[in-house]
Design a protein that fits this description.
The structure is a homodimer. Chain A contains 13 helices and 18 strands. By secondary structure, chain A is an alpha+beta fold.
Chain lengths: 466, 466
């Protein structure tokens, strides 16, 4: 049936698919770095071309933000030939990528993709360009082999996901009619392993902070002033060190107040996922585990909120030594939130905490990033059952349900579009998301294309409500 | 007499003196940065020229280190025409300078000197090129006005002082005969203020550490791994935060064990120096004082040992946010030591402390820098009395005796050459040593040249012992 035909299509097109992914991966679409703004645009244009070549229609690069404060462009496309009796599926993902430092740890340049050992090495390979190619090729394959799609299909692929999607909600609100769908399929997540298919039913929220600390106008000579004047590096270090107590609880007052208990079913699904500590540590390259007392590692990374020190920078960091008392310091903290924590409420609590931690006379300013609400899709939702069937057909067993430790705009999609969000994510935990030597597993890509096709076929069973 | 003649010489030569200092300050002789090795050499050559033009003889750029591991060159010169009945004075200073970052805080480029408002703005203006020009011009002025010097004079001006003088002791030992002197005059220090002349009778020792911390081979995605894997930034921050307790005592066990009590005379001299907290804070640009409980700010910066966090760097420090768990971190710590602390013993204690602070499984490596012993010249030494007279003649009152909070190779000079070390330092606390916008006060330079001349005349009273 459809499956066989799609797999034949796939066999005949693997070379072309890898080549087009590699071409796209050459574009350094780092949304967090203003210098790469034109690359993010080039990335959008290139993905628009891939959508057109795949048979999608009404392809458009969508501006975001305002004229005075423009955001990075998103890409939209649709194929509405299934008619009003068929449901509408919106595919979500992103075409921007993370920054690449520390550059010296990459085995090959991040934007010169290498295909080796059944993997593609490049920034963005799995997060998220590879998964977007997966979705386009599924649609293209179905169109090529069947002449039409079983559902009405829309693509909305943004260019600011790695910067916290600052204009995404605005864009959704502006074009809610055009984007309306019966179900959203997000492809921007990982699965447990090729042997243990999983699907993500929840995402943590995100709020992050950039704290500037200043103790003097300029660095001071440590021989002349050291021992009497405040040292910005010390106050920054104390802030970072005080963020967790000895049980690895986040010390910000009220941080855990609004955390919702898991349902029985959610807890059971989480327990069904295995955890091999040795293998987990090997993948991370870490020597030991840390984390909130009283919770398992899986809970700590998915159903519990966390606060991570993303960076701390103060004083001299060059070769040899400089004998100074640093005058300024910077600490970046990223918090992952779970239902029903509210980013704005947490941000207020964090600001109060910083003010209490730092003595008067230490200047501080706090910049807030993100503000993504956490979300979770109920396990008994019909879309999840259809996704489960599609994945079982490709990976040989139904997926386990897990919650992502990561944060995405899935909450915004569900909320603004009023549609359930399910996830078909084929990246693997060892793909080095956000780190040097990011990879995409080609066997996962091929299975993912088949599964994305199967999913569209399954979702045709949904009743259109819009 | 000599004084009048020297002041007349000075009036006639101010323009030339400033011009030659400015030319020298254009050479970015940053000894800590290997890329500037040729500039350090150019600086040595230029200073050798100034010495020759000043009438000094046997001028030589001296190599340091070994052929395989060369150090930065020092400069030597002498004038031995006073004969064997006259004492020999060795002038010590350095021609290398500190690094310049943060570059963006400089009002003018650090190696494009600006003369404005009776100050010279440039890296090295007061530390130490200005003070070396002061010594050369004093000798030049005496030679020009008297035809000879009252003492035998030697210059030894090194090129690695800002890197902890790694080859200086080796050089002294190698050429101890050539450098032998009855007294060493160091000009690499500050005085209290133009209204309160002071001289430095002691220097703190220095030992510094560069600690690398690693928790994983690469940074990890904070959404996937955050909350379970060790975070290098957190361990670095905890290390830096744990260095002092709530009384600002250094927590390294045994740190204070060998600190020698002050003599009555030393304590009295220290008490005679005023301390204006408001003015002190204004100069530092700080809002409040910190420091070891039970000691005054003056004690904390001169007679008490300290440990300063010079830098801490981990994770992402660029614009916006990156959601990672940092895998590596760097902490730099510089310790100032007082008699009778031993840098090697302190280093061992520090290494043990770091090992106790970091959990097993957090990789760490510690690089040690410096290892300068603390030193102090007894207040009743004849050389100090002669220095006092010379300074009184120029600044109108005798200097108070203070101890420098800084560290220098003065201990090595005293120990290897077996000669007392006195200091004629004319830089001011507000000259921004080691920081952006370093300055030299021209009125202090002019007084310093007169005082350096007076000092040579006074020191002629010493009996030669070598």
């Amino acid at each position: 049936m459809g499956e066989l035909a799609l797999s034949q299509y796939l066999e005949a097109n693997k070379g072309r698919i890898v080549a087009s992914l590699v071409e796209w991966l050459r574009v350094p679409s780092i949304s967090a770095e203003p210098a790469h703004a034109s690359d993010v645009r080039a990335s959008a244009e290139m993905f628009a071309r891939l959508l057109r070549e795949g048979g999608l229609e009404a392809v458009e690069v969508l501006e975001t933000g305002t004229k005075d404060a423009p955001g990075a462009p998103a890409v939209y496309a649709e194929w509405l030939g299934a008619g009003p009796e068929a449901p509408t599926v919106l595919i979500y993902g992103h075409h921007d990528v993370q920054p690449v430092d520390p550059l010296e740890q990459w085995c090959s340049p991040p934007f010169e993709p290498v295909v080796s050992n059944d993997k593609v090495f490049a920034r963005g390979a799995s997060d998220d360009k590879g998964q977007m190619v997966m979705q386009v090729e599924a649609a293209r394959g179905l169109l090529a082999t069947r002449g039409k799609l079983p559902v009405n299909l829309k693509f909305l692929v943004e260019g600011e996901e790695e910067s916290g999607s600052p204009h995404f909600e605005q864009l959704l609100l502006r074009e809610a009619g055009r984007f309306s769908a019966d179900v959203v399929v997000s492809s921007d997540s990982t699965m447990e392993s090729p042997q243990v298919p999983t699907t993500t039913v929840g995402y943590r929220g995100l709020v992050a902070f950039d704290i500037e600390v200043r103790t003097a106008p300029v660095d001071l000579h440590s021989g002349i002033w050291g021992g009497t004047v405040p040292n910005a590096a010390v106050y920054a270090a104390r802030l970072a060190a005080a963020l967790h107590d000895e049980r690895w609880k986040v010390t910000v007052p009220g941080f855990y107040d609004d955390v919702r208990e898991l349902t029985e079913e959610e807890a059971a699904s989480l327990r069904a996922l295995s955890f091999e500590e040795e293998e987990y540590l090997r993948k991370a390259g870490a020597a030991f585990l840390v984390g909130e007392e009283g919770f398992t590692p899986r809970e700590r990374t998915s159903t519990r909120p966390t606060a991570e020190v993303v960076g701390i920078h103060a004083g001299y960091g060059g070769p040899a030594m400089k004998t100074i008392v640093p005058a300024t310091a910077n600490v970046k903290v990223a918090m992952r939130l779970v239902p029903d924590q509210d980013p704005q409420k947490i941000a207020q609590a964090f600001r109060r905490w910083v003010d209490v931690q730092l003595p008067a006379g230490v200047e501080r300013s706090i910049q807030q990033y993100g503000g993504v609400l956490p979300m979770v899709t109920p396990l008994n939702h019909p879309s999840l059952q259809l996704l489960s069937r599609a994945m079982e057909r490709v990976w040989g067993k139904p997926p386990l349900f897990e919650r992502s430790g990561g944060s995405g705009p899935e909450e915004t999609l569900a909320r603004v579009l009023g549609a359930p969000v399910v996830s078909l994510g084929i990246a693997l935990p060892e793909d080095h998301f956000h780190a040097p030597n990011e990879t995409l597993s080609l066997p996962q890509l091929w299975k993912g294309i088949l599964a994305a096709g199967e999913l569209l076929i399954e979702l045709a069973a949904l009743k259109p409500t819009k």
